[in-house]
Amino acid sequence: MILTDNETKIDLLNNEAIAKTIIELLREKPERPVTVGVHGDWGAGKSSVLEMIEANLATDANVLCIKFNGWRFQGFEDAKIALIEGIVTGLVENRPLLTKAGDAVKDIFARIDWLKVARKGGGLAFTAFTGIPTPDQVSDVVETLKGIFADPAKLATQDNYDKAIDGVQGLLKPGESKNVPKEIDAFRKAFDNLLKQAGIQQLIVLIDDLDRCLPDTAIETLEAVRLFVFTDRTAFIVAADEAMIEYAVRKHFPELPDTTGPRDYARNYLEKLIQVPFRIPALGETETRIYVTLLLVGAELADDDPAYASLIGVARELLKRPWKAAGLDAQTVKTTLGDKAPQVQNALTLSDQIGPILASGTQGNPRQIKRFLNTLLLRHQTAIARGFGDEVKLPVLAKLMLAERFLSRLFDQIASAAARHPDGQCEDLAALEAVSEEKETPKRKRNGSKNTGRDDDTPPVVVSASNESPILIEWKAADAIRAWARLSPSLADVDLRPYLFVTKDRKDYFGAASVLGRLAAVVEKLLGPKLSVQAFEGELKQLVPAEAAQVFEELRGRIMGGDAFDTAPPGVNGLAVLVRAHPTLQANLLDLLEALPRDRCGPWPASGWEGVIKEADAVARFEKLLEGWSTSKSSFLKTTATAALRTRQKAGR
Question: InterPro entries of this UniProt entry (predicted)?
Fold first, then answer.
């Protein structure tokens, strides 16, 4: 079961209200040119709003909707020409009356051809402020084409050459005085004439995915829109994230004056082009829960199922006043779906469990919600295919994935502990879930009960017991972690190892844990900064030699596996403390130092080993290493090693 991420005409978010508002605005005065912006973050539903606008206008014979996706044209054609030609071609193809308007059609295409030749033949980009090349530029194009004749390899045939010259020169009639303003006006008049002969009241151009385009493509498309801004009976609806367009403006116009500030200029550029902005609001908690329910129910039932359509209708009524609704409760769904309700029971349970935290974690973004649900369902299906599906329950997996997605440090800590535990449990998590229910005062309850008097803005007082681990203390102090811990189901007695195995696509928590067992926690501590690892020397002395060697090998693998030696890798300070606590590991340390790529190392290998390398044989090996490093191609290592040798010689070594 996969939730598709394509734009849709099925409205699960009540965004049809935005689509209808835009349509009413456009149709109120169809003769008036207007540019509308549909703004929203990545995945907010902008494309779906355009789909709804097109679907609602499909039966109106007085309106013609033309769609343009700049992202699809990126890299194939100049975006400015592509949009202009796409609009005119769509108009001609969709209005049979224009077959009789031969002269008007030829005139407008001749002007487009002129722009094409100017772009391709002379390699000239249209100016950012006019959209039309000057007569001098066109004359330069003609000269350029004539120059091509000297190199026949650049032109397929003599016939093509003649046609190109005639096509460009034909646009500049002898004795005719032309300038940029007149050319702009002429193009618009030719287009306006074409609209009149098409027999429509309004042409609406839907432009999508500009925020996916490279900056130059986005700006070229917007510059083409400016050619039509003052053309009667023409409307543009541009769907884009404002922040991405502002970024494109700054990249395309790097020479913007410092006095105005690039962001202010970018914002002004967009606001001058977009006359009426609409921003798609983020989903709140109730809206997210309704959306998740509809998505999961829709994955079980067909889109055209009458029962599903009825449920969408009920949801839309609730979405009209989301501040008064609590979501689609089980009884409402059961009554609406009738005998199909048992098919979607798991969907309802899952929606109740993950809806609240998913709303805040995704900032109410529909695409992120879909991606989360798809990953959840795919991982569950993977567990089934591998033969341990019965050990992976969707609610438990969902709760863990919420931590993985939105509280990644928490997830890593839980996973590392569970991978080491003989029963796959996390003892600190059990304690957290217990205190979260007992000591946390809820800000509000779903049954409508009032708060107990504590100000919502006042953080709870966390009293830590002396025997609590540092990790548990850290978790109890974080509001987001306590909110996550209160979610059902409880994970206190759950063997989390099957769930961690399902999430191995992110990180393998079993590699080190399965070999090291409880020593994995020691390794993690020794990967910390210098000041913190020095405090562990007493604890390290409690390790038996075999355990110390095991920890050393894990640290060595981490250091060498990172393949970055300009600065001391994480774990080097831990190795120093470990070897000081277990001197028998000095030979192992020198083996590691000898294996380092000396020409790629910073200064760190040549210093900091005082009190670590002490035995005579080890000291001799280290001094020999210093001699070799003193001739390294790495200037930092060479300088440090030379200084260390000089110091040792002065000390009488």
Answer: KAP_P-loop, NTPase_KAP_P-loop, P-loop_NTPase, QatA
